[in-house]
């Protein structure tokens, strides 16, 4: 197609079906920069930003066996199909933590379950600490980096 339509560089090409096994081909002038397309456009290119959330640990979250995830992050974790995540803390310890999912009326609650308490104590986290949870590569694995943020 590059030779037939004399396309150089990165240009937008659209094909519209005209019926009877025929297409109308339009080559749009100028370089195509996917970052300049509106967010609703199907060709919009977006960098995969690491999915993360932060939480300030309450006494309950720092001492009990579960951590409830915020709504957006919980929705992502619920739809991944993971039954556990591997939490990597600042001291280098990696602990597999069970994901608990259950439906409450019309929405889901998602929590880190078994091994959460062990992860908190192993890393020395306490009530009042602000932790940031981030998938290292959310598309390929269930490993999360957890860091303590400064207040």
What can you tell me about this protein's structure?
With 151 residues, this protein is of the alpha+beta class. The protein has 2 domains: 2-36, no CATH class; 52-149, DNA-binding pseudobarrel domain (At1g16640 B3 domain). It has 4 helices and 9 strands; from the N terminus they run H-E-E-E-H-E-H-E-E-E-H-E-E. The strands form 2 sheets. It has a 7-stranded mixed sheet with strand order 3-8-9-5-6-7-4. Residues 44-48 have low confidence and may be disordered.
Strand content: 35-45%
Mean pLDDT: 79
Provide the structure class.
alpha+beta
- From the N-terminal CA to the C-terminal CA, the straight-line distance is 56 Å
Order of helices and strands: HEEEHEHEEEHEE
| Largest sheet: number of strands, sense, barrel closure | 7 strands, mixed
Strand order, sheet with most strands: 3-8-9-5-6-7-4
The CATH superfamily of the largest domain is identified as DNA-binding pseudobarrel domain
Give me the CATH fold name of the largest domain: At1g16640 B3 domain
Q: Name the CATH class of the largest domain.
A: Mainly Beta
Rg, alpha carbons: 23 Å
Tally of domains: 2
Q: Quick one: how many beta strands?
A: 9
Shape: elongated
The helicity comes to: 10-25%
How would you sum up this structure in a few lines?
With 151 residues, the protein is α+β, with helices and mostly antiparallel strands. 18% of the residues lie in helices and 36% in strands. It has four helices and nine strands, in the order H-E-E-E-H-E-H-E-E-E-H-E-E.
């Amino acid at each position: 197609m590059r030779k037939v339509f004399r396309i150089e560089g990165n240009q937008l090409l659209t094909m519209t079906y005209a019926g009877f096994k025929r297409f109308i081909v339009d080559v749009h002038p100028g370089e195509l920069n996917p970052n300049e397309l509106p967010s609703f456009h199907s060709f919009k290119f977006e960098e995969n930003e690491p999915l993360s959330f932060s939480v300030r640990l309450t006494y309950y979250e720092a001492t009990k066996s579960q951590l409830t995830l915020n709504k957006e992050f919980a929705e992502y974790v619920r739809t991944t199909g993971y039954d556990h995540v591997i939490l990597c803390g600042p001291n280098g310890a990696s602990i597999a933590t069970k994901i608990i999912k259950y439906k409450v009326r019309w929405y889901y609650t998602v929590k880190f379950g078994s091994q959460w308490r062990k992860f908190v104590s192993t890393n020395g986290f306490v009530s009042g600490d602000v932790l940031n949870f981030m998938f290292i590569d959310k598309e390929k694995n269930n490993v999360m980096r957890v860091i303590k943020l400064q207040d």
